[in-house]
Structures
1.
Amino acid sequence: MFVSNPRGGPQAAQSRGDGDPTRPVFYYDLGDPECYLAAERIMSVMPVEPEWEPVLAASVLGAPRFQVDQSELARRMLALRLQPLRWPPGWPPDTRLATLTATYAKGGGRAVAFSLAAFRQAFAGGRDLAAQDTVLIAAAACEMHPTAVLKGIALRSVDSALDRACARARSAGVVELPAIEAGGQLFSGPDAVEAAAELLGAR
C-alpha cells in the first residue's frame, strides 16, 4: 500500500468532480485486475460511498503498469467468493473505448453499474474490453441503450471529461492503481480500500 502525504487546500477542493471536497474518490482503470478486486470490495468495505472516477492508466501513470501475480489474484478472488479469474485474450487491452463509456455512464449516474459490469465481462467472462460488443453488453446490463452509448462516447464533451479525470488523478498524486483519495490522503495498491476504510471509520 502507498500512502501519500496529506493533501488539501482550495485547489484540491476545487478538483472534485462532484463538488464535494470531503467525499472519497476511487480512481481505477477497467483493464486492471487489481482495480476489479477493489471495485468488488469497495461498496461493502467503505463506510462512505466514494465517487467512482474511471481513468486511463497510460495517461495517469505514463504506461499501463499492470504487474500481476496470476496465482495470487486467483487465490484472492476465491477468498472473495468471486467467479474464477478468466484472462481476456490479448490482455492488457486498450481500454479507451470502455473508459469513455464509463465516463459517459458517470454523467447519467451509472458509473458504478457500468464499471462493475465491464469488470465482470473482462475478468469473470474473459472478454476483451477493447471490443465494442463487450462494452455494449456491459452497457446493456445497466440499461444503457447501444445507440445512445455509441452517440454519447463520440461527443467531444465526454472525451474532455475523461481527459479532465486523468488530469485530476495526476494532480492528486496517483502513481499506482487502484487509488483512493480519502480524508486528505491518497491510498493505492491492493490494500487501498481497506486502508481508506480504516481511516474514514476512525474519523
2.
Amino acid sequence: MPIQLYPGYDAYSDVNLLGLCVWREARGEIYDAKFGVACSIRNRVNHPTWWGHNYHEVILEKWQYTSFDPSDPNSTKFPGATDPAYLECLEAASCVINGKMTDTTGGASSYFDKSLDTHPPKWATDGSNIHTADLGHLHFYERKQDVQEA
C-alpha cells in the first residue's frame, strides 16, 4: 500500500516537524512525556514498515497522528515561537534526532492518553503490543513483533 501523506509540510526540517507533532500531540504534558512521544516517533523511523522510512513519512502518514488529520481541530493549530511548551517540544525533538538522550519509552512506537483507560485502542489490548512505560498521562507500547526481532 503506497504511503499517503498529509500535504503542506515539505519545507519543515525533521526537527521542526517532529517538534510540531510533539506539540500538537502532547503540549500539555510534562517534559518526560513530550520526550517519550518524540522517542516513539523515532522508533517508528528506526523500524521502517508501513509507517514510513523517515520523519516526514512517519509523522504525515494518514491516520497515524490525529493532530495532522484535517478533521482534527489540532491540525490547524500552530505554536507561537516563544510558547514555552513549544520550546520544550523542539528541545525534545532535537535531543531525539541528535541522539543526545536515551529512549525512555522502552522502544515504544505507540502511545495513548490515560483518559482512554476505560476504552483503550484495540492495538493496546489485542496482544500485538507490549506496555513499556508510563510517562505523564501517556501509556507507551512497543509492537510485540519488534521485541521478537530484537
3.
Amino acid sequence: MEISYWKSRWQKNKTGWHLDHVYPYLVKFWPTLSLSDEATVLVPLCGKSRDVLWLAEQGFQVIGVEASAAGLEQLREASGQSFTQTSRYGNPIHRSGNLTLWEANFLSLPAEAMPPIAAVYDKASIVALPPAKRKIYAQKIITLCGPGTQILLQTFEYNQAEMHGPPFSVPQKEVAHLFGEHFSIKLLHERSMLSDVDKFRRRGLHSRFIERLYHLHE
C-alpha cells in the first residue's frame, strides 16, 4: 500500500488495527530475546502503538518510525511526556528521554540514519504491506541489522483469495524466504483467530485466520 493510503486512514481515524492496550504476547515473549539493559529497539511502522511506550518503560532505547504525523501525535499524547523536535534527512524527529520517534517513510529512510540496532519489533507491520513491498521492507530490515540483532515478528496467515488485505497473509514459507538466509527462525506462538475477527468474515474470510509470532536470531 502507498503511504498516501495509510495517511488517508489516519486522517479519517480509521485505525482499527491498533490495540488500545499493550499486545499481551509482547509482554510474554519479549524476555526470550534476553537483551542487555538500554539496548536499542527499532519499531518500524509504529503508528500509535502502546507497545512502543511499554518497551520504553522497560528501559530500552526505543526508536519508532511512522509516516503519519497524526499517528505520532497520538502516541506522544498517550505517553504524557514532553518532546523536543529536531530534524534529519528532512524528517521531523521527536525525542523524550529514551524514546525517539521519526516521522518518516521507513522504506526510504537512509540506513545511516539508524544507530546499531539490538532488536526489531514488528507488530502489524509486515502484514500491512503487499508482496512486492514486503520484499523491500525485509531488505530494509536486514540492512539495518548488525551482528546479533534479533527480531520479534508477528504475522497472519489466511486464504488471500477470500479477502483483500490489509492485513495481508504472510505464510511461514514467505517468512523463511524473506529472512531465512540471514536468521534462524523460531516459531514462538501460533493460534487460530477466526472466531475473533468478525470484521474480516464480513469481508469474505471463512476458512482460517492464524496468528504467528516468530523469534529471528543468528
